[in-house]
Amino acid sequence: MDDDQISLDAGIVTDFDDDYDELALASDGSPLPDQRYLDRELSWLAFNQRVLELAEDPSVPVLERANFLAIFASNLDEFFMVRVAGLKRRIATGLAVPTNNGRRPSDVLEDISITAHRLQERHARAYQDLVKPALDDAGVHIVDWASLDDDDRARLRDVFSQQIFPVLMPLAVDPAHPFPYISGLSLNLSVRVRNAKTGREEFARVKVPPVLGRFIRVDPAESVGDVRFLPLEDLIANHLGDLFAGMEVIEHHVFRVTRNEDVEVEEDETENLIQALEKELLRRRFGPPIRLEITDDMDAVTLDLIVRELDITEQEVYRLPAPLDLGGLFDLTRIERPDLKYPKHVPTTAVQLLPPEPNTKADVFKAISRGDVLVHHPYESFATSVQAFLEQAAADPDVLAIKQTLYRTSGDSPIVEALIDAAEAGKQVLALVEIKARFDEQANITWARKLEKAGVHVVYGLVGLKTHCKLALVVRQEKGRLRHYSHIGTGNYNPKTSRIYEDLGLLTADDQVGKDLTRLFNELSGYAIEKKFRRLLVAPLHLRKGLLKLIAKEEANALAGKPSGIRIKVNSIVDEAIIDGLYRASQAGVPIDIWVRGICGLKPGQPGLSETIRVRSILGRYLEHSRVFSFVNDGDPQVYIGSADMMHRNLDRRVEALVRLVDPAHLREIEGLFQLAMSDGTASWSLDADGTWTRRDHDADGAPLVDMQDELMIQISRRKRPGTTR
């Protein structure tokens, strides 16, 4: 799951604005209602339910449905490892506080457990009753050992003996062998055996090796037609006699443990952040268990032993049908069956960045110098825009300096390679690597060290803050003067995720943006404290206040009878000050559209509070990831894009940046996106005031509604360079 979906902050935060109590009043000065927020944890679970609904949808290609089942499982794993783990830790240490609706943390935890149990059971049923039969119909079979014939079993026995048996490590539990450590998210077999001579029963654990494929192909590689796969744990379970020679295998069952894997580093108490983080990453492996998943055939004796040894409560046990760990279904996406996947989409090159002639390269700097370029990934290519921008900067002898933030990137990143090439060419290169990016910490530490060895100036941002903004600045010498070329994006500099994450990015040669980024990078790498920016809104000092001022201006315009309106697209919105500002604007009559992928703490459509607010969510083949903030402003639109969600962590504990769009064509493009997303003719989920999300994908006559992402593929692929017929 993307890092923008989960954080540790819970309950109400009161330090984001000195005058928050005043802000919590309605337009007429009366207090806003106490129960005006939706619970963020349950809202996140509702988001994951929407993912599950895509897996249940028969109109979605079946391998994509399997992929959505895997995404659901992976999302829920991370939710438990971070969100639930953090809540349990705060309850145990007495640090938990009531939520922003006054609910006790223990009650929230109970609601999470009830909802998570229901969703995991629904998830398992979706696989067994819906997706697996559809895969069978398509000739992709996930089988069990009992269904195999003698030839199949003989062939798989050879596979087991040669490729799997040497890797297995059975661990006995007896007075000489204590109960083994069970690593987080590992798949395990619990085995009870009997000594044939003494009659004594023993317990052992066999870990399913994560280095091997989750599913073993049953048929020979050269066979054609239908394909069959056997879960790895099933193959191991049916060869336990080889592992426990001379013993009688009585029972075997599959189980899986989720542990607290969040990382906390007290930065102000350490001189070396990397060393402290590496120690914490090592400690992460041994976090306390917070969830136990077991197959529904596990016997009471085995369950009692595991529960006792792991110190797990009954509430934390999830009894499910086999197979566990449906995240393994990601492996099926490698099957070469394009007919069972979404039709392939090839991104286009943004028309402003098209080369002058076929089979030639565009001059990115010349294109940007003609005017701002707004790129929309993955509909428009990351490789021919952002990546080309940085690669050309690295190779251009007129480029003197490159400064960039790196939050997440891919393992073979051409972005990082471009920075290395630039440094080796003698350019000044600054890379701000956020080594605290959750679950990418070790990868980012590795990148940081590689960059440093190449001569890149590597910094880690400001103490106590994560650097989440997506910024690149190129300083180029042109005709005796220095010119700034900038990129501000909503997504990571990751070529791989750019193919599946929907994001926006602005490439500009605007001198004011360049100066803003220069000041911001100085603040991030040195000791400058910058308070004013021209085209940027920057967190943690100014972003929330800036947005609240823009919201308040729409409220004032509505009360004065002037044109008003607010449109916001985010991954999550839970910040109380922002939500209350939107409530006040709604009370003044401002039309407000909120387009949110994940968590929404705002209650839309409540009489007297939020009657003018609509909330929609769109999920599909691409992960909606961009953040957009649009204000009518009495006919002079103010539109910003950037990396910030409306969450406490983004606004208070991260360096975030929004950039204002000024090109009229870009403002029209953003307006068109919102019109399409909020249209009653577009497939989406709508949020009710009670937190219920309702899916609408067909009209009253049963005809399918417009798929927004498919529609954008068509629209953007048809764009032509101004003044041409291309």
TrEMBL record:
Residues 152-332 form the Polyphosphate kinase middle domain. Its cofactor is Mg(2+). CDD domains: PLDc_PaPPK1_C1_like (cd09165), PLDc_PaPPK1_C2_like (cd09168). It comes from the Bacteria. GO terms for molecular function: ATP binding; metal ion binding; polyphosphate kinase activity. One of its GO terms (cellular component) is polyphosphate kinase complex. Keywords: ATP-binding, Kinase, Magnesium, Metal-binding, Nucleotide-binding, Phosphoprotein, Transferase. InterPro entries: PP_kinase, PP_kinase_C_1, PP_kinase_middle, PP_kinase_middle_dom_sf, PPK_C_dom2, PPK_N_dom, PPK_N_dom_sf. Residues 37-143 form the Polyphosphate kinase N-terminal domain. An intermediate of this reaction is the autophosphorylated ppk in which a phosphate is covalently linked to a histidine residue through a N-P bond. Pfam families: PP_kinase, PP_kinase_C, PP_kinase_C_1, PP_kinase_N. It catalyses: [phosphate](n) + ATP = [phosphate](n+1) + ADP. NCBIfam families: poly_P_kin, PRK05443.1-1, PRK05443.1-2, PRK05443.2-2, PRK05443.2-3. PANTHER family: POLYPHOSPHATE KINASE. Belongs to the polyphosphate kinase 1 (PPK1) family. This is Polyphosphate kinase. The lineage of its organism: Bacteria, Bacillati, Actinomycetota, Actinomycetes, Micrococcales.
